[in-house]
Amino acid sequence: MVERGPLVLRPASAIPELCGSVELSRAWVLACERHPQLATVIAYKGRRADVAARLKDRYALSLPDGPRRATRGASALIGLGPRSWLFQRETGPALEPELSEVLGDAAAVTNQSDGYVVFRLTGPRVRDVLAKGISIDLHDRVFVPGCSVGTTCAHIGVILWRLEDANDVSVFELAVFRSLARSLWHFIEESAAEFGLAVTPAC
Amino acid sequence: MTRLGSGGLIDRSQQLRFTFDGKSYAGHAGDTLASALVANDVKLVGRSFKYHRPRGILTAGAEEPNALVELGTGTRREPNTRATTVELFDGLVASSQNRWPTLALDLLSLNQLLSPFFVGGFYYKTFMWPASFWEKVYEPLIRRAAGLGRASGLPDPDAYEKATAFCDVLVIGSGPAGLMAARTAARAGARVILCEDDFRLGGRLLAERVEVEGRPGAEFARSVEDELAAMPEVRIFRRTQVFGTYDGGTYGALERVADHLLAPPPGVPRQRLWHIVARRCVNAMGAVERPIAFADNDRPGVMLAAAVRTYVNRFAALPARRAVVFTTTDDGWRTAQDLIAAGAEVSAVVDPRREVPDSIMAPLARSGARLLRAAKVTRAIGGSSGVKAVEVAQGGSLLRIEADGLAVSGGWNPQVGLTTHKGSRARWSPELSTFVPGSLPEGMRVAGAVSGDYGLSACLRAGHDAGSAAAQDCGFAAASPDVPRAEDEPIAVAPLWHVTGGRGKSFVDQQNDVTVKDVEIAWREGFRAVEHLKRYTTLGMATDQGKTSNVVGHAIMAELTGRPMEDVGTTVTRPPHLPVAIGAFAGRHRGRHFKPTRYVSGHDWALRHGATMVDAGQWLRPQWFSAPGETDWLTSVIREVKTTRLAVGVCDVSTLGKIDIKGKDAGVFLDRVYINRFSTLPVGKARYGIMLREDGFVMDDGTTARLGPMHYVMSTTTANAGKVMQHLEFYHQVVWPELDIAMVSVTEHWAQYAVAGPRSREVIQAIYGTAADVSNGSFPYLACREIMLGEIPTRLFRLSFSGEMAFEIAIPARYGESLLGELLREAVGRGGCAYGTEALGVMRVEKGHVAGNELNGQTVVRDLGLGRMASSEKDYVGRIMAGRPALVASDRPTLVGVQPVDSKQRLRAGAHVLALGAATTAENDVGYVTSVVYSPTVGSWIGLALVKGGTAQVGTRMRAYDPVRNGDIEVNLVSPIFVDPKGERLHG
To answer: Which of A114, A143, A174, A191 to mutate: most B Cβ within 10 Å?
Structure first.
């Protein structure tokens, strides 16, 4: 056996080419890559109520019924299917072990933190960009903050949700499978080019 | 120049230079190419499709059959563009098409001399024999002589994109009806999208001398536009043609985003294809005028009467200085008035009707024009430089009237296209002598001229009412009624389809050179249904789809057959209503972006290490890694295989499907989807499994590992990952909902790497250090375990596809690239290397493992030598159907190895297996070679094959016959396992 020092592994971005194409001041669309912790929660047979109660109890989160996103502090819960949700948390200790403990035998918890890349998109022309890939009505009164949807964007599967507005401008997030992040980014870059796209860590 | 000194909706302060056939001209902002050509007195703009007859501009809109030009040069050359819809810009380059060598001297017009042969059905009758001549001789010849413009043949430099828009009310067309519909719906609070094909809103309001609310029509249109533009829930799409009606209130539309510019600005697409999803639609597309067929009615200078008004009123350009108007409608008389008002001379107005209301004749009483009733134009006299005179028959006499232009009005055809796309038929209206919309698609209303309401006041009211009703349907309270005041013009029509007696061809369809005589031939030969007429004569085909010609042609057929128009009907129209470039449908999905690409986390790492990538479904995988100095793939692959078998190799296997299956019934579920048993698999162990389709054929294979009492992780092939997930979800959700399990794909979360070879354990141990003991005793073949690598969770499996001792290590994808680097470093330190999918394939064939080529949907487990895996003690998907007689027959092709007798000869996948000496016929075919690789271990090309009675044939010599690549070699049938048949290395 070869002697060696302690192994050090470094995380890498799924989209090394992510970079801004115009100055911030001229951009009508802003984008950034987020790194939340993610885990799918799938309720076992007949255990939906237990899942709801335990999440309410621990995180004060209401289990969304349908394509909605519930938030409390840094945690959010996105409805994916009749008994499955995506738990999202921006900060804090490792999510999967914690959730597994909280939910016990009521649900299957699976770490997906590296399975998705989340893009945050905002700016006055953000809907014009999304309309080029997504066939969902994102009108301000139709797709309100808290709405989410599993759909495709330029033939790429995504989970889309809308956050609360920031400075009266709509804010959307798109979760995409990590392997497809570059293709989705290509779509975003090309589709936003006519408006001016800036990549900023704090959009 | 024929440009008027004042008036028109052009910006005279902006001069735009353009060229037509190399000659330089000037126009103004607000011009179309056609109006600028008219203003420059250019009469001849093209040559006809079949006879190469000189042609001018017939219309002022998208229905134009003649004035098709090539726009742009080089990569941006765009053929068959209607000059009437091209918005003029500075630097525009246009040229005529379908002529040689020049437009004025077109030698191909010799076709005219042969015209007796070119009548309807000519191609069908003449080029029949021999059949093989059609493709190689006749068709290329015909295409060279007849035809439209030329494609550039170069890659399109521009971008196209697709987008979706939603609204409560979609309004199509911005004439008086459309503007009122949009305004009324928007005032009620509805989300409105208004689409206008033109670059300016207003429709006929821009082209007529009319007043609304006491203001000129164009001014009124502008005021409505300003109001709409200021409303946040209204979107106005200019330069956007709605081309199709689809299911569920979806409409297709093409926005010409940058066609009015020399080149699109950076980031801006040239065209955008819209899917518009509308709860309600108000179709206000209007109507187009139809011509009358008479001799030489295609001469440059013959123009539809309403188009003449458009050029005079909207563009301040005179199509004729001395005109004759030939009209069967009240409407045509307005053209005479407008020409005179613009300072032109009208020599005569020719109206076949005996009675014409005084009110429309009176304004012309002192104009000097001859007002001829009960008269018909029999012929336009002139040539390629335009009309010189008009021949008129009145009573028994023929008059010759000097003129340099002839305006023709034969009535109006409502644009019914979008109303029929969902299957309904247009209805003949005897009162209006035209087809009007029949039953309407769900959610669509029609308003204005499209429904046969031609008067201005009627259009305004109809638009208002339709907009109001559409908004109410969407739940909005009606706004207070507000219909602007205007006059209704006289609109009477006495239909006249064609005039007989003149010497020369009378054209029905100018775009396709279909004459009245062609319709008669079709009738004589029995092609009397309108759809047959269309196919036989090409009436109504090509870019204009007969917008000006269909009704005339069908009416002539009605006369010939003596049937009423109601019975004759009209042809079915399908989307697109107007031509749409194929690039717009492709959008941004071109080249590499035709479909999305999936990148492994080690993608850039692989490129840095000399990888050549290969498409594997959506994925890109490293195919081989070229070491310095290596120039051909086989050298690299041989090195990778040898290195792995002698020392150690590292391969990215992240693309294989991975599915986490949890829950107390997970084992039972797996027992039912796999042919073999998994409920008894101990925790910490993995097992190879096969699943079948319902019909008993093999669907997919892979290993499933048990990580915990209620937690399995299944692997699938890369190709079938999605299909397997779908299959499992179906069985859980639909067939066995009682099973308590939870499944989710984790393919994306985990990057996974195979480390194979006699020194693989050293590499793995070096990575884990003291975190895990991976010695044979602690971690034997088929072991699996979750191991923390510091803070990072990993999964380690002892699996082998190569036949060597091997491991697979899974790590959260963000660390994949970093781990790959470490693995390679450790491997290289031990004489190892990275390997790609080619070496992977070589080693699996050497080991006799089946893959996609053998799991091809036509094989059952027994064919693959895996029959013993199938459990006889439980049920599973596909079991019953796999027992069908043909699937258990003893002579089914089964898996064997093949090896050339002469080791230097190359075996080819796909080669047929035949007995030695057997004739190369299908009857003697006993199987085929499925996979072939060059095996450095064996020292020759080797393969796997499916051969009848396979296992029993091992040891015999046969032929591998490959007619595609002229291969015919002798091969030995051998065991499919070329390497380590006892499996000792796996356990080492």
So the answer is: A114
**Cβ–Cβ contacts within 10 Å for residue A42, how many?**
23
Q: Does the distance separating the beta carbons of A107 and B789 come in below 8 Å?
A: no
In this predicted model, what pLDDT tens digit does every residue of A72-108 receive, in sequence order?
Answer: 999 999 999 999 999 999 888 999 999 999 999 999 9
pLDDT digits (tens, 9 = 90+) for B906-948: 999 999 999 999 999 999 999 999 999 999 999 999 999 999 9
Of B162, B844, B232, B744, give the one whose Cα is nearest residue A109. Answer: B744
| Rounded Cα–Cα distance for residues A129 and A114 (Å) | 26
Q: Do the strands B234-237 and B192-195 form a parallel or antiparallel pair, or are they unpaired?
A: parallel
What distances in angstroms separate CA B758 from CA A70, A168, B762, B979, B987, one per listed residue?
52, 63, 9, 14, 10
Query: Structural domains in chain A?
Result: 24-35+115-199 (3.30.1360.120), 37-111 (3.30.70.1520)
- Short-list B661, B672, B657, CA closest to B878: B672
Tell me the three state secondary structure of residue A139.
coil
Q: Does A6 touch chain B (CB under 8 A)?
A: yes
Maximum distance among all Cα pairs of chain B, rounded to whole angstroms: 116
Beginning with the edge strand found earlier in the chain, give each strand of the sheet holding B78-82 in spatial order: B23-29, B11-20, B92-96, B68-71, B78-82
**Alpha-carbon gap, residue A137 to A154, rounded angstroms:** 15
**Contacts of residue A194 in chain B, CB cutoff 8 Å?**
265, 267-269
Whole-number Å distance between alpha carbons of B318 and B335: 12
Tokens of B210: 């009319």
Please give the torsion angle defined by the CA atoms of residues A49, A52, A53 and A55, in that order, rounded to the nearest 10 degrees: 150
Fold of B160-286+414-473: FAD/NAD(P)-binding domain (3.50.50)
CATH code at B890-988: 2.40.30.110
CA-wise closest residue to B705 among B635, B622, B808, B634: B808
What torsion do the CA atoms of B572, B578, B579, B582 make, to the nearest 10 degrees?
Answer: -90
What is the per-residue pLDDT across B762-819, written as a single tens digit (0 to 9) for each? 999 999 999 999 999 999 999 999 999 999 999 999 999 999 999 999 999 999 999 9
The reply to whether residue B766 touches residue A111, judged by beta carbons under 8 angstroms, is no
Sign of CA dihedral B665, B671, B674, B678: positive
Q: How confident is the model at residue A2 (pLDDT cuts 50, 70, 90)?
A: very low
Q: Which residues pair with B252 in a beta bridge?
A: B244, B275
Per-residue pLDDT of B939-978, as tens digits, reads: 999 999 999 988 899 999 999 999 999 999 999 999 999 9
CATH number of this structure's domain B622-649+749-829, picked from the four choices 3.40.50.1820, 3.40.50.720, 3.20.20.70, 3.30.1360.120: 3.30.1360.120
Residue A22, chain B, CB below 8 Å: the answer is no
Q: Tokens 């299956």: give the residue.
A: B661
Residue B945 vs residues B563, B690, B860, B892, B979: alpha-carbon distances, Å: 68, 20, 14, 12, 17
Query: What is the average pLDDT value for chain B, to the nearest integer?
Result: 94
A116–chain B Cβ distance below 8 A for any pair = yes
Task: Judge whether B756 and B802 are in contact, CB under 8 Å.
Answer: yes
Helix H, strand E, coil C: the string for B71-83 is ECCHHHCEEEEEC
* Pairwise CA distance, residues B248 & B832, whole Å: 60
Alpha helices in B154-281 (DSSP H): 176-187, 217-229
Retrieve residue B362's tokens: 């009176």
Is residue B435 scored above 90 in pLDDT? Answer: yes
Residues in chain A: 203
Q: Are B911 and B898 in contact (CB under 8 A)?
A: no
List the 132-161 stretch of A: residues with Cβ below 8 A of B. Answer: 132, 134-137, 139, 142, 154-156
